[in-house]
């Protein structure tokens, strides 16, 4: 007998609590407590229950018809973008066809049940996330005994594919993470981060790289890039054909790049203020001095953009007008809707972390990488479990995924301040609600022209949240929406003319209104940005091959030592 709505809800809550425990979420956290307050509409549940039984009955009838040789339309076809069941074996073999469709019916029932629950929006959003994680994990494609592709390959190879899968599994257990790319094919400084340049300044937190010009003349004003400190800088300088650094240099910009330190125990005392003072502001000071430029342009990606926004607010409060323009790539300054990442963050969890590392210690980059992977578990976890362990196939070579696996530690005090003041309390966007370097932060006092780019399928920085930056800053604004996700949408070389972007609409309070009036253009946003930032580069002057200056001498060739320090 199928359980009642109340029985099903109680059982599901118990299952969800156990699942949360496996994710390390404490039972007394606000996250866990919010799941206990949900109610259920008995009439809606009864309708879902009836539909559930009807679909399974229809699936059974379809399976019987299939056994007699009759073709039938699928009862529960997969979503168009669901690649887990694309192999012909899932449709051709009746038992696996039944298994696949039964799983999809059950998975959709779970999703529909959550939508029918009476819960406050944040609790429902959490339930959606947990249900997706649970459903993705229980896919029959994830298990050798229920994956027809894996079984077929095992028969064809005499079991060698399974043996190789076990070998790959043991290697990854030793490595401490799932392999997503052939790491032997890449080396930083050899075929990644190879744009020519030199480290011309370093302190305990950063190395500052200056790149060699490749054009006869360059803009007078330098461009200083601030990548996310939770990953290595070379996401912006992968290989020559997809390097934003290389592209900017080719357009005639004198480019400087901040390479953040991979934090070790002795640097575990560093704070958010240290990142701004010793990182952002120091890099601006050095670049200005080397280029003898009164003004410069800046670019921040992800949390690099968040730090840049905070630093610009400090500069505005102090009357420092060195910055001519600012580019924010997939960055948040308003964290009121931080997507699925924000679902894990509440007072209890932040307090636990603060007690552990808030006064000193390390936030391991590997832990952060696991969280980001969980946001897209089918793409970044389960697809590799299937390919590597069930099929015994080594992953291919992909530079973005090599970078993604190259995690960076953060100092505990810096991390705790960041999480509390942004994700938890969202204080950075409220004038005067928080201080940085002793200065009350007011983003509205930032009046430099700003280029704000978001990506439409971003699972880390939702594009509608990135759009809110246009309502916070006080200067001229251009908003552009790129296709694809958080990384692939940014690293979209102009030369390949792939994907598209949206531009042109007048800024509105509602991002959906902006999108409805916007114009979609084929190709990369890079060309649009190049035209925009070219307005702020200043006059063209003769390029000098000599890097650094009398005061800031060459320390070592790019990419430098800091970026090569890996977590093992």
Keywords, separated by commas or semicolons:
568 residues; alpha/beta; Rossmann fold; eleven-stranded mixed sheet; two-stranded antiparallel sheet; 13% strand
So what's the CATH class of the largest domain? Answer: Alpha Beta
Structural class: alpha/beta
Tell me the name of the CATH homologous superfamily of the largest domain: Alpha/Beta hydrolase fold, catalytic domain
Strand order of the largest sheet: 17-16-15-14-9-8-6-7-4-3-19
How many DSSP helices?
Answer: 20
The domain tally reads: 2
Biggest beta sheet summary: 11 strands, mixed
Uncertain stretches of 5 or more adjacent residues: none
Q: From the structure provided, what is the oligomeric state, counting identical versus distinct chains? A: single chain
* CATH architecture annotation name of the largest domain: 3-Layer(aba) Sandwich
Give the distance, in angstroms, between the N- and C-terminal Cα atoms.
Answer: 52 Å
**Structural Rg:** 26 Å
Helix content: 40-55%
β-strand number? 19
Question: What is the 3D form?
Answer: globular
């Amino acid at each position: 007998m199928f359980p009642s709505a109340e029985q099903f809800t109680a059982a599901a809550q118990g299952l969800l609590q156990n699942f949360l425990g496996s994710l390390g979420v404490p039972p007394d956290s606000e996250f866990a407590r919010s799941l206990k307050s949900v109610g259920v509409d008995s009439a809606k549940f009864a309708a879902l229950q009836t539909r559930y039984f009807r679909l399974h009955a229809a699936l059974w009838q379809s399976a019987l018809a299939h056994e007699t040789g009759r073709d039938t339309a699928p009862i529960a076809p997969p979503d168009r973008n669901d690649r887990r069941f694309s192999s012909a074996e899932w449709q051709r073999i009746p038992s696996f066809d039944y298994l696949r469709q039964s799983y999809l019916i059950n998975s959709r029932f779970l999703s529909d049940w959550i939508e029918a629950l009476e819960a406050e929006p944040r609790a429902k959003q959490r339930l959606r996330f947990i249900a997706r994680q649970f459903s993705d994990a229980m896919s029959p494609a994830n298990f050798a005994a229920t994956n027809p592709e894996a079984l077929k390959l095992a028969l064809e190879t005499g079991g060698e594919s399974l043996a190789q899968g076990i070998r790959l599994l043991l290697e990854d257990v030793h490595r401490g993470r799932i392999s997503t790319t052939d790491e032997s094919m890449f080396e930083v400084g050899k075929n990644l981060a190879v744009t020519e340049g030199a480290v011309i300044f370093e302190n305990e937190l950063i190395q500052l790289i200056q790149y060699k010009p490749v054009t006869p003349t360059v803009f007078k004003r330098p461009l200083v890039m601030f990548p996310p400190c939770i990953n290595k800088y070379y996401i912006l300088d992968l290989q020559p054909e997809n390097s934003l650094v290389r592209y900017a240099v080719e357009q005639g910009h004198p480019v400087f790049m901040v390479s953040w330190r991979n934090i070790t125990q002795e640097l575990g005392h560093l704070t958010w203020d240290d990142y701004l003072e010793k990182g952002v502001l120091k890099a601006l000071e050095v670049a200005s001095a080397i280029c003898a430029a009164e003004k410069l342009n800046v670019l921040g990606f992800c949390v690099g953009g968040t730090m840049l926004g905070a630093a610009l607010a400090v500069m505005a409060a102090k009357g420092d007008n060195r910055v001519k323009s600012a580019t924010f790539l997939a960055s948040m300054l308003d964290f009121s809707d931080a997507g699925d990442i924000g679902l894990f963050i509440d007072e209890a969890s932040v307090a636990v972390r603060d007690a552990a590392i808030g006064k000193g210690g390390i936030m391991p980059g590997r832990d952060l990488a696991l969280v980001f992977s969980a946001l897209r578990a089918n793409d970044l976890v389960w697809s590799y479990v299937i390919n590597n362990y069930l099929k015994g196939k080594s992953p291919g070579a992909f530079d973005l995924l090599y970078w993604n696996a190259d995690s960076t530690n953060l100092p505990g005090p810096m991390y705790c301040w960041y999480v509390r003041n942004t994700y938890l309390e969202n204080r950075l966007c409220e004038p005067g609600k928080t201080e940085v370097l002793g200065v009350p932060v007011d983003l509205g006092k930032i009046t430099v022209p700003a280029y704000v780019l978001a990506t439409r399928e971003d699972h880390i920085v939702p594009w509608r949240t990135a759009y809110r930056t246009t309502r916070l800053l006080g200067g001229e604004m251009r908003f552009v929406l790129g296709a694809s996700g958080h990384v692939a949408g940014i690293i979209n070389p102009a030369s390949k003319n792939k994907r598209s972007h949206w531009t042109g609409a007048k800024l509105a309070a509602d991002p959906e209104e902006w999108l409805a009036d916007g114009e979609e253009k084929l190709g990369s946003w890079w060309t649009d940005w190049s035209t925009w930032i070219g307005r702020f580069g200043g006059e063209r002057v003769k390029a000098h091959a000599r890097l650094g200056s009398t005061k800031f001498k060459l320390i070592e060739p790019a990419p430098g030592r800091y970026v090569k320090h890996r977590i093992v």
